[in-house]
Amino acid sequence: QVQLVQSGAEVKKPGASVKVSCKTSGYMFIGYFVHWVRQAPGQGLEWMGWINPNSGGTNYAQRFQGRVTMTRDTSISTSYMELSGLTPDDTAVYYCARDINNNNEDWFDPWGQGTLVTVSS
Amino acid sequence: SYELTQPPSVSVSPGQTARITCSGDALPKKFAYWYQQKSGQAPVLVIYEDSRRPSGIPERFSGSSSGTMATLTISGAQVEDEADYYCYSTDSNGDHRVFGGGTKLTVL
Predict the structure, then answer these.
(1) Which mean pLDDT values do the consecutive 10-residue runs of chain A (121 residues) have?
(2) Distance (Å) from the C-alpha of residue B3 to the closest C-alpha of chain A?
(3) 3-state SS of chain B?
(4) Can you tell me the distance from the alpha carbon of B38 to that of B49, in angstroms, rounded to the nearest whole number?
């Protein structure tokens, strides 16, 4: 079955960077975009961007441009999301999710289990 | 920026019908998608393309859309349906991917 398994929780200091991994299995990795979505404690879902594992092309939400970098390693079917310049407001659970595309629209299914990133001095 | 608006909370008794709405200006042109998120878990897709149900999702979950409003309906809600529900869609250009603010469904 399709699975996305993320790396473990991280604690970072303000100003640092964090890199979260998302290892996929059960499908052809290069055939589907991977999205990243975050959720601050007690808050809603926020889309961060996607990566095309085939080409490495990316599309980031405007508010994260300049701070987020999404990459992939096709040899191990894994996507990565790196966020720099961390502040306490970046404390959140970060999810990866596989893209599903039809009729020129896309959505996310399934999702990884989430990675808690805590930013604290 | 584009926004989708959901009520913060909906409450029903077990066996009743729960309806959760999502309003957005681009919904006449774009599909709505619905995710269920139980406490401490990742979101799960329950409705895609306004009204289609993924395999494994109970038949009591249905979706519809009319004009600028999409609706998730849970017919005969059960205690295990208690969760946060998020709608998702894009603006008319497909440039901005957004989630609604989420609706907490209470079944008791």
Answers:
(1) 98 98 97 97 96 96 96 98 98 97 89 98 96
(2) 12
(3) CCCCECCCEEEECCCCCEEEEEECCCCCCCCCEEEEECCCCCCEEEEECCCECCCCCCCCEEEEEECCEEEEEECCCCHHHCEEEEEEEECCCCCCEEECCCEEEEEC
(4) 22
Residue of B nearest to A39 (CA): B42
- Tell me the two tokens of residue B53: 């149900």
Q: Say whether pLDDT at B12 is over 90.
A: yes
| Beta-carbon separation of A107 and B48 below 8 A | yes
CA-wise closest residue to B103 among B3, B10, B1 = B10
Which residue, B10, B14, B17, is CA-closest to B64?
Answer: B17
The Cα–Cα gap between B69 and A88 comes to 35
Q: Do residues A1 and A8 make contact, with C-beta atoms less than 8 angstroms apart?
A: no
Per the CB < 8 Å rule, is A111 touching B42? Answer: yes
Residue of chain A whose Cα is closest to the Cα of B31? A105
Q: How many CB atoms lie within 10 A of CB A103?
A: 7
The residue of chain B nearest to residue A4, with distances taken between CA atoms, is: B42
Residue holding tokens 């999205």? A35
Interface test with B, best of A37, A103, A107 (most B CBs within 10 A): A107
Q: Do B31 and A105 touch (CB under 8 A)?
A: yes
What integer pLDDT is reported at residue B83 of this predicted model? 98
A-proximal residues of B, 56-85, CB under 8 Å: none
